[in-house]
Amino acid sequence: MRRIEDKERELQELLSKLQHDVGPVYWYDTVLSTMDVGFEHSDAADRTVIVADRQTRGRGRYGRLWYSEEGSLYCSIVLTRFDIRLPYSMIAAYGVYRALMRHSDRVKLKWINDVMWENGRKISGVIAEERRQRTVIGIGVNLNNLKFHKKIEMTATSYRRETGECIGVAEFLRDMADEFFSLLAAVDKDGIERVMAEWETDASVRGRAVRIVDSSRELLGTSTGIDKRTGALLLHTEEGDVKVYEGSLFYR
User: Which residues are CB-neighbours of 252 under 8 A, at least 6 positions away?
Assistant: First the structure.
């Protein structure tokens, strides 16, 4: 695990031009997981940004492995000032979506915390974990990689694969941080409900027939939106209305 100081300086300079406070920047060649690094930094300041060229044990939801080859964005943002009630993974995924929309309108926001290409293939995933008096948000965005592990070859994609164009990792991280921190500022100013209402609209989730699968059950119904405070999916089923906080969503 070696720090890449020239990339750190480049990213720090880009982030310094934003109208937001940003913490220290750490950029490594290879790590197990940027989230692990975020928790291991005992003195990490609020909004510390941790980036790696490659992860060997990057993780997604439910402990799944996030395959992390060079050429794309693998980062974590450490929050030491946070509100445990806020759905940070959804807010961060919204920031990724809005940053990608600066480059293409062919991306889709998907509950809970994914961004998909218009063909249904996954381009980004976000998770958030809270422990040791901090929240660490892990973000993976497939930007420039063309090859994928055989387990996700048919379900994942990248910006470069779909468009033939590359996006600078540092430049995209700047755009994503700008969107994410702008969303956090909007939450502080106007409350989470306004941001989640915009999330709901951009995700086009209302009125969709869906199937939700988690480790213990399968639910079929029609989405009536999301809870504007928690981000839970509001689902109308034959048995009645329910709030769904976890699970994988499939449109029917």
Answer: 209, 210, 211, 220
Three-state SS at 214: coil
pLDDT tens by residue, the chain, 252 residues: 899 999 999 999 999 999 999 999 999 999 999 999 999 988 889 999 999 999 887 665 555 655 667 789 999 999 999 999 999 999 999 999 999 999 999 999 999 999 999 999 999 999 999 998 999 999 999 999 988 878 888 899 999 999 999 999 999 999 999 999 999 999 999 999 999 999 999 999 999 999 999 878 899 999 999 999 999 999 999 989 999 999 999 998
E-state strands within 64-216: 73-79, 107-110, 114-117, 122-131, 134-141, 209-213
Report the DSSP pairing between strands 25-31 and 48-55.
parallel
Instruction: Name the amino acid, one letter, at 71.
Output: G
Cα–Cα distance measured from residue 32 to residue 39, given in angstroms and rounded to the nearest whole number: 12
Q: Is this structure's pTM higher than 0.85?
A: yes
- The answer to whether 136 and 152 are in contact (CB under 8 A) is no
Residue 7 has which token pair?
């990339």
Full set of structural domains in the chain with CATH = 5-200 (3.30.930.10), 205-251 (2.30.30.100)
